Amino acid sequence: MTKPTDVVPKDSTLARLFDRRTNVLIGMLHLLPLPGSPRYQPRDGVGAVVARAVQEAHQLVDAGFDGFIVENAWDIPFVKPDEVGHETTAALAVVVSELRREFPRMPVGINCLANAVEVSIAVAAATGGAFVRANQWVNAYIANEGFIEGRAGSIARYRHGIGADDVAVWADVQVKLGAHAITADRSITEQAKDAVWFDADALIVTGSRLGDPPDQADLKQIADATSLPVIVGSGVRVDNLPDILGCADAVIVGTSIKRGGVWHGDMDETILQKMASERDRVAAGGGTK
Q1: Residue 289: its pLDDT value, please?
Q2: Are strands 168-173 and 202-205 parallel, antiparallel or unpaired?
Q3: Which of 3, 153, 189, 287 has the highest CB neighbour count under 10 A?
């Protein structure tokens, strides 16, 4: 049911993309360094990036995950959206195209850091990507990259102009790794409503740092503020998955499914299996242990 805070009724992006409205399990693919970034290895080429992404995607699919999202996580230090080079866009398109060829039925999302949502949408439009993540869709915050503002109006027009309205925008509310003093006089519920008002398709909630889960009270407030799908985008582990899925409709899992809990490490297939099994238990009505 549409809530009074929603602008217009929307079909669930989760139902459209994953054929289910709740308990959606999405794996994060932290890509190796892309061309143009300081750590890129020209001798290995983009082929090495593709090979690693495809390998990890197979592990996610085999474990029972519903989809995955690619992120240029190794392009550290990140730059502001207008400074992202064409080589980054091209490399992302190559990676996503290969993933789409290998897994034609799996929804693939794109997050081009930092907050380069136009790039993500361009890649999705060219490759058949299903959704993009906007770390700052509305308002503004101070990130490691400096001042980052939401540009929902111009990006929505860009998406429409290139015929990519089917590419869903999943917008973070108080994204991690930043200072939110600019919006400190506005509650997290109000900021969630801002993202809804500016036509996001889903809301993402995170903790304050990489691998930190969101505050459960914040998660509940955001879930109560909208009928849009709510997705937890950090800090999801096997042990807290039931509690999180008690409020959220989907999760994006990255750091916790790596060996030793290191985001750039290899995927741990045992944890992948446990994560998917726990999701299935919750989906079957198991709920919180």
Answers
A1: 43
A2: parallel
A3: 189
